[in-house]
């Protein structure tokens, strides 16, 4: 038996966002009573909720969202259990990671919380060296929040990797042997990132 597990947070008005990002507002633009149909108006940033970062997020010369291969957003995954390990996630947790997998880092941190665990530059560099090109976390960022520098983003995005942030419920995947993850972004021309509906298939 296989089952699908939603790894996304709901998009809703007032939800937590990274400091300085656009606030999220969701409300009716059209209604059945007035207009004959229901249509929501959405105001949000490209990094709202569960989302992916394209390399372009960091540097104008790097690939945009629509220039990346779809394989960056779908494939076999492995979950690294970083719960209770303190704020710094070093390379020792990734020694067994192999190329061609999506690496999901489960910190157990509450959605939107600052002071969350984050990857060191060395950990991000090791993942790149191992051939990993998609890294996800249930925290606001793979770097500290707030931050003056973004060494983990630098190491990953300059290698044309994709970063997924604000994933939800990664603890439900710990111990699962076969995990396949999909987190396809909206097809935003020239995009630096996009909200995603992240889903894991386990079985």
UniProtKB/TrEMBL annotation:
Keyword terms of this UniProt record: Hydrolase
Record EC number: 3.5.1.9
GO BP annotation list: L-tryptophan catabolic process to kynurenine
Family annotation (Gene3D superfamilies): Putative cyclase
Domain of life: Bacteria
Listed InterPro entries: KFase/CYL, KFase_sf
One Gene Ontology MF term: arylformamidase activity
SUPFAM superfamilies per UniProt: Putative cyclase
Pfam families: Cyclase
Protein's UniProt name: Kynurenine formamidase, bacterial
């Amino acid at each position: 038996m296989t089952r699908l597990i939603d790894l996304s947070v709901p998009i809703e008005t007032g939800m937590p966002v990274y400091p300085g990002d656009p606030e999220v507002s969701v409300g009716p633009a059209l209604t059945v009573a007035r207009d004959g149909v229901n249509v929501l108006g959405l105001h949000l940033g490209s990094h709202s909720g569960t989302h992916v970062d394209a390399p372009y997020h960091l540097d104008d010369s790097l690939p945009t969202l629509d220039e990346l291969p779809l394989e960056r957003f779908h494939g076999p995954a492995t979950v690294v259990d970083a719960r209770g390990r303190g704020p710094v996630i070093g390379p020792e947790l990734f020694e067994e990671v192999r190329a061609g997998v999506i690496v999901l880092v489960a910190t157990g941190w509450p959605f939107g919380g600052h002071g969350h665990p984050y990857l060191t530059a060395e950990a991000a560099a090791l993942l790149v060296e191992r051939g990993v090109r998609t890294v996800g976390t249930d925290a606001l960022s793979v770097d500290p929040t707030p931050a003056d520098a973004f060494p983990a983003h630098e190491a990953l995005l300059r290698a044309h990797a994709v970063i997924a942030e604000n994933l939800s419920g990664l603890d439900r995947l710990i111990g699962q042997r076969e995990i396949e993850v999909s987190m396809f972004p909206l097809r935003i021309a020239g995009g630096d990132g996009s909200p995603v509906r992240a889903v894991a298939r386990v079985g």
